[in-house]
Amino acid sequence: MRSYQSSQRVLTNRVTKSVVRATRVVKAHASTDAYNSIKGLNVYRATDGSEVELVKQWEADERVLVAWTRSLGCPFCQELATQLQRDVKPKLDEIGVKLLMVSIGTPERSKDFVARTGFPASNLYLDPENITYDALQLKNTVQDTFFNVATPLSIAKRFAEGKSGDLMDILDGWQPWMTPKGPTQALQQGGMYVFQGQRMVFSYQDKATGDHADIEQIMAVARSMPPQRPDCGCENVDETEVAR
């Protein structure tokens, strides 16, 4: 497996391929569209910087929640990582659902992210060129990053529900980190997807900075999935999609 540093010479070709794939991606309401859009795309493991294919990080019939976050330096993303590792991962472990996070950054910078959030490095993957984000057509505009009403509404909701503590803790001592490709990459938004093998059973694309999927809804979806799918004709799986 190649390291992040040794892979720079092939990034241009990979990015070009991802753009071609992205043009073929339809909004992921068909069962395998999201999976197929990221199939063949590589990310980097936080643990050792090795390059791996993202969809090969879960088995053909395995249930997995994949959270795409804006970047390693985003305070809202650090808040989400803190909550996922503390409140969500133990519950997912109990029911046999894997948790993965993909974020924009480098393996080197991920060490600081893990230290700040407690999110396990073994579950963290880096996409420094945001190729999986492009393939899923996650939002990436100035409007949604800075001027979408969903951001202040999501912050207000945190305070109204008494759930602002994690964000306040993150902001205490927080310093901005530059994204690998510079300031324009910081416009990228994230999202959450639940897969069972190749089948997408839930998706949420963040509408704006700080606007994350509802954790209780995700847990309800995770609990509703059968633990095994012996018939991988997979014709009768309920699918949930939350519109952008």
General description of the model:
This protein has 244 residues and is α/β, with parallel strands linked by helices. The chain has an 8-stranded mixed beta sheet with strand order 2-1-5-4-3-6-7-8. The longest helix is centred in the middle third of the chain and has 20 residues, at 75-94. The chain has helices at residues 11-24, 33-38, 75-94, 107-117, 131-136, 142-146, 150-160, 165-171, 215-224, and strands at 42-45, 51-53, 63-69, 98-103, 124-126, 191-196, 199-205, 240-242.
Might you state the CATH topology name? Glutaredoxin
Count of runs of 4 or more consecutive helical residues: 9
Give the termini distance in whole angstroms: 36 Å
Low-pLDDT runs of 5+ residues are: 8-30, 232-244
Provide the CATH top-level class: Alpha Beta
The gyration radius over C-alpha positions equals 17 Å
Write the element-wise H/E pattern from the N-terminal end onward.
HHEEEHEHEHHHHEEHE
In the CATH hierarchy, what is the superfamily?
Glutaredoxin
Beta-strand portion reads 15-25%
Q: Within the largest sheet, what's the order of strands?
A: 2-1-5-4-3-6-7-8
- Domain module tally: 1
- Helical residue percent? 25-40%
Largest sheet: 8 strands, mixed
User: Based on DSSP secondary structure assignment, what is the total number of beta strands?
Assistant: 8
Shape: globular
> Architecture, CATH level 2?
3-Layer(aba) Sandwich
InterPro entries: PXL2A/B/C (IPR032801), Thioredoxin-like_sf (IPR036249)
Protein name: Thioredoxin domain-containing protein
